[in-house]
Hints:
The structure holds 2 protein chains of 2 kinds.
Chain A: E1 15-20, H1 29-39, E2 45-50, E3 53-56, H2 60-64, E4 73-79, H3 83-95
Antiparallel strand pairs in A: 1-4, 2-3, 2-4
Chain B: H1 43-66, H2 72-82, H3 85-96, H4 101-117, H5 122-142
Amino acid sequence: MGSLKIKIDPLKSVIKRKVVLKNKLGIHARPATLFANTANKYKCIITVEKNGYEVDGKNILELLTLVAPGGTEIIIKADGEDEKEAIEELVKLVEDGFGEE
Amino acid sequence: MGLGRSEKTFKGFSISSGYAIGKALFYPTFEVLPLVASKKLSKRQEYKKFSQSIKILCQEISQLKDKGLETNEVIEAHLNILNSPGLKENIKNYIRQGLTAEKAVRKYFKQIATKLEKSENKFFKQRAIDLHFLSKELVKIMQNYHFPWEEFKEKI
């Protein structure tokens, strides 16, 4: 949230990927759960940003506060030992529309 | 219509906004409770009280799912929110800062709900209602104002 506790060091090289939400409703409770559960499998720090507002990618409630309906562009960032795998899986999840229309 | 149907309108707190066809469970709402300070408990006890309320509410919500109501997605979403590590971690932090479990729950849920309420997107705006509902239920359980939903079941 605005008071994001898990911060990625801006000076560090971080993996970032821009993705557009494909499903109609975007990040509502179910996709937020899928995203957070997937993110929680990894050790790295994961954040999601929309228009400069950044939240913890492992927290369902904070993901909801992105207020991101379908068509919104988000940036997924990962920082840590398993960042590559994490970002690949999360991007795929978003690109598959979280299994929704 | 000659099918023995009748229509009734109720005012209350639904699990989610919208229309639905199916069995109805009625659970009377209570006025917003004042956050009476509970007995001074240790931080560990406050967190235990919160954990216990999560457990009870999850059990009750799960019972609705088991009844085969067609609200499984909403129920699943509520369960996911209640069981999310992020929620527990934030409540723990607030308790560490000296808040009671009730105040911690109110504060965190309100913080999230306010963000959703500010949205221009109707769908997300409505989700704030779900969060207020969960927050109120947790507080009621922690303050022993809570009655199992089963006790209020009525048939139309």
